[in-house]
Amino acid sequence: MDESWPDAWRDFHHGVRVGALWVGPPWEGPPAEAIAVVIDPGRAFGTGAHATTRLCLELLQDSEPESLLDVGCGSGVLSIAAAKLGFGPVGAFDIDEVALETTAANASANGVDVDILGELRPARLAVMNIALDVVEAMLPKLAVERAITSGYLERDEPRAAGWRRRERQVCDGWAADLLERV
Predict the structure, then answer these.
(1) Using CB atoms within 10 A of its CB, is residue 7 exposed (0-12), middle (13-18) or buried (19+)?
(2) Which of 36, 92, 134, 168 has its CA 20 to 30 A from that of 160?
(3) Distance of CA 147 to the CA centre of its chain
(4) 116: buried, middle or exposed (CB in 10 Å: 19+, 13-18, 0-12)?
(5) Alpha carbon 154 to chain centroid distance?
(6) Are the CB atoms for 132 and 111 separated by under 8 Å?
(7) Which helix (H) or strand (E) holds 126?
């Protein structure tokens, strides 16, 4: 048996540059001029490399920093990036306890304040990189003015009463939208 197999998965996780941000694993070093978001994926979803995450990060960088709620936080990549970009307060919510633990550990490792939440709270902006049906179900429940959503294909469009699309980004067949309440 090959004894290197426990670490072989690391060969598949590499840092990515998204605007001013670099998102990558702790075993790689970021470029000196980048805002580093170091994510140990552990057992939670989200390394930063997927097109939907990159699209959300692009839309975050185009937004004015304000209070933020990360719904379905996974590894915390979006929460941590938001905190590093000056958003605050930043709250991270997930129904998966492992995701909340992973987000807390990654936020601590990055030296940022992210509130780990057991329930939704009001914010000016929400970010959700989760399945389309979950985005559509969550939008009416959020006490936010705007939402950055992704996790779905370019051909899909979130639909929820009281919301309209303000901007759309696409990459590799995936989409992210900036939505606002009407």
Answers:
(1) exposed
(2) 92
(3) 12
(4) middle
(5) 18
(6) no
(7) strand 125-129
Q: Please provide the CATH number assigned to the domain covering 5-181.
A: 3.40.50.150
Structural tokens at position 48: 């930063």
pLDDT (tens place) for every residue of the chain, 182 residues total:
555 544 554 555 678 899 999 999 988 888 999 999 999 866 555 666 789 999 999 999 999 999 999 999 999 999 999 999 999 999 999 999 999 999 999 999 999 999 999 999 999 999 999 999 999 999 999 999 999 999 999 999 999 999 999 999 999 999 999 999 99
The Cβ-side half-sphere exposure at 25, using a 13 Å CA radius, reads 15
Give Dmax (Cα) for the chain.
59
Q: Give the start-to-end residue ranges of the domains of the chain.
A: 5-181
Cis preceding linkage at 89, omega within 30: yes
Helix axes 77-84, 51-61, angle to 10 degrees: 20
Instruction: Indicate the helix (H) or strand (E) that contains 104.
Output: helix 97-110
**Dihedral angle sign, alpha carbons of residues 101, 102, 105, 110:** negative
- Tally helices (H) and strands (E) across the chain: 5, 10
72 Ramachandran zone, left/alpha/beta (phi>0; psi -120 to 50):
left
